Amino acid sequence: METLVCSNIAKKYGEKEVLKDVNLTLEKGKIYGLIGRNGAGKTTLLSILSAQNPASTGEVLWNGEPVWENQRALNHICFSRELTPQPNGSTAGMKVRDYLRAASFYYPGWDAQMAKELLEKFELDPKKKLVKLSKGMLSMVTIIVAMASKADFTFLDEPVAGLDVVMREYFYRRLIEEYTQTNRTFVISTHIIEEAAEVFEEVIIVKHGEILLKENTAELVGRTFRVSGLAETVDEAVKGLETHLPEQIGRSKGVTVCLREGETLPGDSGLTVQPVNLQNVFVALCGEEQL
Amino acid sequence: MNEILTQEKSIYLQISEMIENDILRGILLEEERVPSTNELAKLYAINPATAAKGVNILVEQGILYKKRGIGMFVAEGAKEMILKSRRSAFYDSFIRKLLEEAASIGLGKEEVIAMIREGEPKGSDEV
Predict the structure, then answer these.
(1) ∠ CA(A271), CA(A276), CA(A277), 5° rounding?
(2) Does the pLDDT at position B127 exceed 70?
(3) Are A236 and A283 in contact (CB under 8 A)?
(4) Least C-beta-crowded within 10 Å: which of A131, A287, A289, B93?
């Protein structure tokens, strides 16, 4: 099976360690959600996976071949970066059309028909300069590049940032359609977790430069619960379990529990046990310091 | 009180039900102060007006009462009031649905009654 594997990837910018010993295997034909707090290392990880950025240590292999400076491998990998055109930057005078043409030269599988169709769907003017586009319009351009690249491994970094809710829904539907027709692999980072939860077969959570977990989304959500009730009863019930985000108000207490293999919650204990959603899981695992 | 809010019903109803549940379970005691509207709003990250709406339902029913300048308190006899109203709603909230589902899968009343008899009286020592 086609895979993209990174082993023992670390990345330092000066003294700052952005990624620490990351090991990750991406399989062909899956949609992965990449979620993490701001600054967790998501974009750096994607840029290293796509050889747009060298790792300080470690290696990325596409079907066993290193991807670094390997055009054969890179023909199968697309990282459509978030566009942030600066008035004096390299893309300053560039029009949407020019940017898409550049992408079409880069990706051998480029689907010009699809690019055209998406431009129309998004009602984007190809003659417009990148610097003149709104945040949502820039997201549309990165989506077009990602979709039309036809790359086997396609990474989208916050593709829905700035998009209105109708366009976000359209994007996820179009993504699913493309996925079912082609079986491409997509890695999608987003901060708007809940609306994408049903799209992600697996979720990769990045925390402080490390992969906190990579797991089937339904399984992760299915083994996580919010347990609440009388504080002593809650404490007794969750003893020895992995708990997060305790909250107490008076004698009432709530805590998020992630059950590990073989663990169960005691029944009949007068407690409320509620299912949670992916966003709740993420906040429990990554938000503890702030909340 | 530390449950998470769901999409299934209005937030203010969930707030009032959670307070009721805590009174039933002895987490909130009679004549004890309940969290303020602002505390509830902060805990669930909801608009204080929504939290107030949930609390006010219970005030109207006499389950909570206001002490001016101090806050909301659980009324004496609150637990009994909640038990009474929940019991009278029990048929509509549970039994009716139970019988509907039983009928739709071809289970007769006698079979359902037999199941109830055999069933463990889970949590019956609570309440």
Answers:
(1) 175
(2) no
(3) no
(4) A289
Interface of A with B (CB under 8 A): 226, 228-230, 247-255, 267-268, 270, 272, 274, 276, 280
Tokens of B82: 């909640």
Task: Answer with the one of A203, A218, A233 that is the final residue of a domain.
Answer: A218
List helix spans (H) across chain A.
Answer: 42-49, 71-74, 96-106, 112-121, 135-149, 165-182, 217-222, 231-237, 278-286
Rounded distance, CA B101 to CA A135, Å? 50
Q: What is the pLDDT of residue A86?
A: 82
Cβ atoms of A178 and A159 within 8 Å: the answer is: no
| 3-class DSSP string for A214-269 | EEEHHHHHHCEEEEEEEHHHHHHHCCCCEEEEEEEECCEEEEEEECCCCCCCCCCC
Count of beta carbons in the 10 Å neighbourhood of residue B74? 21
**Separation between Cα atoms, residue A191 and residue A279, nearest integer Å:** 9
Does the residue A237 lie in any domain?
A: yes
| Residues A65-121: tens digit of each pLDDT | 999 999 999 999 999 988 888 878 777 789 999 999 999 999 999 999 999 999 999
Chain B residues with at least one Cβ partner in A under 8 Å: 1-4, 6, 21-22, 25-28, 32, 35, 39, 43, 122-123, 126
Say what the pTM is. Answer: 0.87
ipTM surpassing 0.90, yes or no? no
Find tokens 């109803």 and name the residue: B13
Residues A151 and A192 in one domain: yes
Residue with token string 């829905």 = A160
pLDDT (tens digit, 9 = 90+) per residue, A227-282? 999 999 999 999 999 999 999 998 999 999 999 999 999 877 789 999 999 999 99
CATH of residue A33's domain is 3.40.50.300
Q: How far apart are CA A76 and CA A53, in angstroms?
A: 17
Q: Name the domain count of chain A.
A: 2
Residue A215's identity, in one-letter code, is E
The C-alpha atoms of residue B115 and residue B124 are separated, in whole angstroms, by 16
**Domain co-membership, A27 together with A170:** yes
Are residues A247 and B2, on separate chains, in Cβ contact within 8 Å? yes
Closest in A230, A268, A272 to B3, CB measured: A272
